[in-house]
Amino acid sequence: MEKEERIRPSLLGADFLHLKREMDILVRLGIRSLHYDVMDGNFVPDISFGEKLFVPLFSRYGKKIDFDVHLMTKDTLRHVRQFYALGARNIAIHYETLDEGMDGIKRVKDELPGLSLSLAFSPETKTSLVMPFHSLFDGFLVMSVVPGKGGQSFMPEALEKIAMLDYFRKSNGLTFDIAVDGGIDASTGKMCIEKGADHLVCGSSFFKAEDKGAFLSLFADGDRIEEGR
Ligand code: DX5
Ligand code: ZN
Fold first, then answer.
1. Pocket test for ligand 1, best of 118, 140, 180, 181 (most atoms within 8 A of CB)
2. Can you give the pTM of this predicted structure?
């Protein structure tokens, strides 16, 4: 997989005083997907940004770059519908927010054609709890930090979760996507790829890198790693 597809910069790590400049850099680097963290101050303590910022960003950049909306929100299926209506087609929701179970998921997928829906799960949630729902989703988002803040340290337990999902996927001939989010840098990112992750969400490490192109190039050997695994 190409590095521009492998790495999903998280907007949360961007310089908000220079948002347009940051977005233009992503486009120039050929980044395929921007990770867009929505925090509601309820499922997680902080409030980040939501629909209001999505609209102008999507209208200016939506044709050049995909938006990968990570909903850290209660009442999450309502937000799925809202972001879908605004143009989002790649959305991750949290297992821990689905109090009413999985009943609504099939309905939402039938209702919203072309939606790619991933199931995110927090560090305290076991992989064995989410795996049975693989057929309802297009992928999993393994949280390698407690959701709610950027700049935290990678939790190595995530590696085993990725490996479990990858093993399950391979041994059953499945094709769901595996992404990982939180504390990803060059070293933790490579470990995740080796365990089977397809996509790496990078907030601080990407946006703080003085040379973002050079940061991306650290993952240029992704194909080789993949072939060897
Ligand atoms: C954390 C968010 C992440 C965050 C990652 O709750 O879901 O997407 O932006 O930031 P870093 O890469 O700094 O851990
Ligand atoms: Zn995220």
1. 181
2. 0.95
Predicted confidence (pLDDT) per residue in 6-28, tens digit: 999 999 999 999 999 999 999 99
pLDDT in tens, 42-71: 999 999 999 999 999 999 999 999 999 999
The count of residues in the chain is: 229
- Which tens digit of pLDDT belongs to each residue from 96-122? 999 877 889 999 999 999 999 999 999
User: What's the CA-to-centroid distance between 149 and ligand 1, angstroms?
Assistant: 6
Both tokens of 13, joined, read: 């790590």
